[in-house]
Amino acid sequence: MDPLAPRTQPAKSIYSALVKEAKNRSGRMFEVWVEAERQAVLAAAIRAATSLDLVAPSLAEVEQAEALAHGHADYMAKFARGVANRMRPRR
């Protein structure tokens, strides 16, 4: 079990998608894997938003969460939580 992994939704499913995509980094150019991870996070957030009746984040919000996570030892967890924290209940 990953001690840094978020335990609650939607951060948990976003984190899982990010970890899964990050396994494909080897052999890819930096720009390629960064974009693939952003897209994986966005797709997971959209799926979670639909199932949890939340507003899905935009790509810009995903990029902002990613930027805030840079340099942290728990980068992936912080990235996932940052995206999840931007997701609000539908009105």
Description:
It is a single chain. Helices cover 64% and strands 0% of the residues. It has 4 helices and no strands. The radius of gyration is 12 Å and the shape is globular.
Q: Detail the poorly predicted runs.
A: none
Radius of gyration: 12 Å
Structural category: mainly alpha
The helix fraction, in percent, is 55-70%
Helical stretch tally:
4
Strand tally, please?
0
- Beta-strand residue fraction: under 5%
Q: Let me know the largest β-sheet.
A: none
Shape: globular
Mean pLDDT: 96
First-last Cα distance: 36 Å
Give the H and E element order: HHHH
In short:
This protein is mainly alpha-helical and 91 residues long. It is built from four helices and no strands.
Task: Please describe the structure with a list of short key phrases separated by commas or semicolons.
91 residues; mainly alpha; globular; 64% helix
Topology:
Elements: H1 11-22, H2 30-52, H3 59-69, H4 75-86
